[in-house]
Amino acid sequence: MDINSYISIHTLNKLDNNLLDYKKNILKHFYNNFLKDKTIDYQNFENKYLENNPTIIERSINDKKCMARVQYKTNTYKQCDNYKKNGDYCNIHFKNSNYGNINDLIN
Ligand SMILES: [Zn+2]
Q: Which has the closest alpha carbon to 75: 30, 35, 20?
């Protein structure tokens, strides 16, 4: 039997995502069916068990740019790329900033 020993990054990422989906399904099932005391919402519950520790890239903050924290990719955040238009924020984040200010602490 000949087995190809090369695994592409694409395949590894796909396996990773499948595994993550599988874990999420188990957690969701557990949350919905077995967790009696739902003092925690599902997303926090999931984050707690999947150890999705949020990270912030681009530690140096550009004072001329919008101070909103934006999601860069799953669980990774950075400062908004737009320039300030309204106070500390761009026109988008002046109205709504889903992930808070770049200086806010992530816990
Ligand atoms: Zn912005």
A: 20
- Domain range for 23: 11-50
Q: How far is the CA of 105 from the centre of ligand 1 (A)?
A: 18
Predicted pLDDT of residue 106 = 63
Residue 86 Cα to ligand 1 midpoint, Å, equals 10
Q: Judge whether 61 and 88 are in contact, CB under 8 Å.
A: no
Task: Report CA(69)–ligand 1 centroid distance (Å).
Answer: 8
Please write the tens of the pLDDT for every residue from 30-76.
999 998 888 888 988 888 787 656 666 666 889 999 999 998 777 77
Centre of ligand 1 from the C-alpha of residue 96, in Å: 9
Same domain, 46 and 61: no
